[in-house]
Amino acid sequence: xxxxxxxxxxxxxxxxxxxxxxxxxxxxxxxxxxxxxxxxxxxxxxxxxxxxxxxxxxxxxxxxxxxxxxxxxxxxxxxxxxxxxxxxxxxxxxxxxxxxxxxxxxxxxxxxxxxxxxxxxxxxxxxxxxxxxxxxxxxxxxxxxxxxxxxxxxxxxxxxxxxxxxxxxxxxxxxxxxxxxxxxxxxxxxxxxxxxxxxxxxxxxxxxxxxxxxxxxxxxxxxxxxxxx
Length: 229
Prior knowledge:
This protein is of the alpha/beta class and 229 residues long. It contains three helices and 17 strands. The chain has two domains: 3-79, CATH 2.40.50.580; 84-226, Trna Endonuclease, Chain: A, domain 1 (3-Layer(aba) Sandwich). It has helices at residues 84-94, 149-163, 190-202; strands at 3-5, 10-19, 22-27, 30-36, 51-56, 66-73, 76-79, 107-113, 116-122, 126-133, 135-137, 140-143, 167-174, 181-184, 205-214, 217-223, 225-226. The chain has a seven-stranded mixed sheet. The radius of gyration is 18 Å and the shape is globular. The protein starts with a strand and ends with a strand.
């Protein structure tokens, strides 16, 4: 089963989000600053006294000693490092673990198309952008959880690529296992939702997979369906 290693983790208790990338937690009865590598709002996850998982980072001259890599919402553990979905998809591409994709031999990461840098290009004819999803309401995964001009730009670039002979994919990686369907979050970013609908009609392929944080690994789980766009 496709997975990526997150690292050794320790439990702490969430206190507050200080700014976009800095939070405080209680660790060993002491309030400690930790780094959060996720620019999303996460307002439904980052609640006072929530149990979180930290990974120690032994990096010289770094301001914080720990990364916040997981958050519990009830009994569900949510991966909250925005770098991990890309790593998991890259591993899945190497293992040919995404059966919806056509056959390919070469994987090119960080591919520049027009004014966008997209996550992957396969054989210089298949483009893919990966989006991490942390927001789930009543089994429905939603993206984005904050307005995203960058996300809209990527979708428009993939539409343009289809017009120029590329095959384009957007893969939404849900960083938790409790979702059953996916929908663009029109309440939060109606322009993104509208752009995604247009992209689907133009031939951009949309994929959604769940993942599960177990032990020290994030595992690729199941494919989800879209609510009709």
